[in-house]
Write a structure and sequence with these properties.
Length: about 150
């Protein structure tokens, strides 16, 4: 199983239009091609410019429900903020329970997060990827080899 980490606050570019969504979708397909995967979404330090539109969020969940449902094992939200909570609330009635049930919100300090994530099945030191500069990286790779994806 692969573990991907995304932090919009660390992104180079925000993807919030149809043309750039195609680019983002290609990275989702790459994750799917590698087999089962979990997406860690870190909301820490997000500001207004990092928030994507509700339309983008709905398109993302549509993509997940139509093309990623069998490969995506979970979306784990760490450092949740009001924008993320609102986004989850908006999409909850629109999508299958199978999609929404994959979302887990993990709260707490950094040490609590590491402990909670390890209890959820993350092996090894979670601090390796919690502090990375990259936006979407495969956990199994070293920082020098990491795939960097900005959105």
């Amino acid at each position: 199983m692969s573990l991907y980490y995304t932090s919009p606050a660390k992104s180079i570019e925000i993807i919030d239009n149809p043309e750039k969504f195609v680019y983002f979708k290609a990275h989702l397909e790459q994750a799917k091609a590698e087999g089962k995967w979990i997406w860690i979404f870190d909301c820490a330090e997000m500001r207004n410019e990092h928030f994507v539109s509700i339309d983008f969020t709905k398109n993302l969940f549509k993509e997940i429900s139509e093309n990623q449902l069998n490969s995506l094992m979970g979306i784990w939200v760490i450092h949740p903020n009001s924008w993320m909570r609102t986004s989850i609330s908006v999409v909850t009635p629109l999508f299958k329970k199978e999609v929404i049930s994959k979302i887990k919100v993990v709260e707490g300090t950094r040490l609590e997060l590491i402990s909670n994530l390890e209890k959820m099945g993350i092996a090894g030191p979670a601090s390796e990827w919690l502090g990375r500069e990259s936006v979407m990286v495969l956990k199994a790779q070293s920082q020098a080899q990491a795939k960097k994806v900005a959105f």
